[in-house]
Design goal:
Number of helices: 6
Oligomer: single chain
Number of domains: 2
Order of helices and strands: EEEHEHEEHEEEHHEEH
Distance between the termini: 18 Å
Radius of gyration: 19 Å
Strand content: 15-25%
């Protein structure tokens, strides 16, 4: 059975998944992304990760990727050519997505945001949707009627916020990102954790509220949470559904829409 390898290349991690011939996601794995990694390093890692998880690398019939890191994209494309004998499909401007992009400059929209939107409309066709992706950055994106990508907001993610406090202040330490017990911390560590968590919580609620009013005339959209830090807010009542693999689902859906992108 032919499998498809889907790769989301972010600023901090490469999130990978294998989709089987029936469209099911059968494997997920991550690798820290570094601009200095070579095509050989990526190729060896991908093949080893597949084998260690019981998947024959020769069963990969197609590879698709979205990327917000151009230098890494080049290395991974070379890795796919050398170690899998195929040219990957790259989710980028000009490919079929099923979306109407209403951004002032459609080329400015990150591939990961497009992939999330494609995955979202596959789950909720004809619905208004807001996707909150909590990774290195937190993005909040609006999709109208299951087809029109309107735009969204971008703010620093939780880890960036913690690191900025540590780097730009003389005495504040770097802390674990966790769910705090109280909004009023009783130590410096607790205070930072409370500020990071509840500040992000409030920002997301406010952005979802304002975007619902601006983009959907105040009607309630489906709010989807995704990205590594979204799990921290699973029980916070701000998401209608948590979809950890939304970006991989979107990459795979885009791959299906572009048969001309089949690997050679």
């Amino acid at each position: 059975m032919e499998n498809s390898l889907c790769l989301d290349v972010g600023n901090s991690n490469i999130y990978a998944g294998v989709v089987d011939g029936d469209g099911g996601l059968v494997l997920r794995f991550r690798k820290t992304s570094t601009i200095s990694s070579s095509a050989d390093e990526y190729g060896v890692f991908l093949r080893a990760a597949l084998r260690e998880n019981g998947i024959d690398p020769s069963s990969i019939g197609r590879i698709a990727l979205s990327s917000v890191v151009p230098d890494t994209t080049f290395s991974i494309r070379r890795a796919c050519q050398k170690y899998f004998g195929m040219e990957p499909f790259v989710l980028q401007a000009g490919v079929k997505t099923g979306l109407q992009i209403a951004y002032k400059n459609p080329l400015d929209v990150g591939a990961d945001r497009i992939a999330n939107a494609v995955g979202a409309i596959a789950r909720y066709p004809d619905r208004d949707i807001i996707v909150v992706d909590m990774g290195t950055a937190t993005t909040v994106d609006a999709i109208e009627g299951g087809k029109k990508y309107i735009g969204g907001s971008i703010l620093p993610g939780l880890r960036i916020s913690v690191e900025a406090l540590e780097e730009k202040t003389a005495k504040l330490p770097i802390v674990e990102i966790a769910i705090p017990e109280h909004a009023c911390g009783r130590s410096t560590t607790e205070s930072i954790q409370a500020g990071i968590y509840w500040g992000h919580y409030g920002a997301i609620r406010e952005l979802v509220s304002r975007m619902s009013a601006e983009c959907f005339s105040g009607t309630k959209p489906v709010v989807l949470g995704t990205g590594g830090f979204s799990q921290l807010f699973a029980d916070a009542g701000i998401f209608d559904e948590l979809v950890p693999d939304l970006v991989l689902e979107g990459i795979y859906r885009a791959l299906l829409l572009n048969p001309e992108g089949r690997a050679l």
